[in-house]
Enoyl-CoA hydratase domain-containing protein 3, mitochondrial
Amino acid sequence: MQQRFKWSVHMTEQTQELVHKYSENGITTLTLNQPEKKNSLSMAMLEALSEELAIIASDSETRVVVLAAHGNVFCAGHDLREVREQFDSHEFQLALFNQCSKVMQQIVNLPRPVIARVAGVATAAGCQLVASCDLAVAADTARFATPGVNIGLFCSTPMVALSRNVSRKHAMEMLLTGEMIGAVKAERIGLVNQIVDEQHLDEMVYKLARTIADKSGHTLKIGKEAFYRQLEMPLEDAYEYTSKVMADNMMANDAQEGICAFLEKRKPEWQDS
């Protein structure tokens, strides 16, 4: 498929582009851009991604985010060479994993839906990145793993996102064996929403993104926040909380416009309020 991304650039001290950003029609695409390092989540990459997510959080024009990557590896997890250079520094290791955890939470807390566009391999923190996104579309050649156990470093932080996406037994199987799973199994256990032939990956991802971007941005924000908050609540508390959310939502301009438009058989005109 013809390359259609235009880029704004996040610059590191070495002036290398780490994260490309392109926005069009309410869809912002963030693309990891260190294919020579397998798009690993170095401290610099995490900081660049965090910065872009913070900008998007206050960008009223963005309704949907697509998270993509250049190269044949979506993300190989942390940069193990960087980690090795800091073996003697517990302070750095803690800062690295805290920064990674911050980025994952930024994705979950972002008031915009995030779709992972997965081509190639997503391992360790890269698999965590996919699991942290609200939706994921994968090429049929994509593969996933949490292989930390193979090198003596259990994937404890990836476990947080993984265990909130798939069943306990499937999560434990991935974490304990460290073995790679294919796209078909990833879809079956709920790690990704759908798989497509790689040549149709962009078509499917952006079809999904456009469908979501056509909705009220205000409503999407309310719904995403409520979804994640109610997940951790007991049943009774979840219903009490979401009943209030719906009542508050009903007072919004977009809810009232949407209901009127439906009854009047016309397309709604969103005000995002």
User: Anything to note?
Assistant: The longest strand covers residues 17-24.
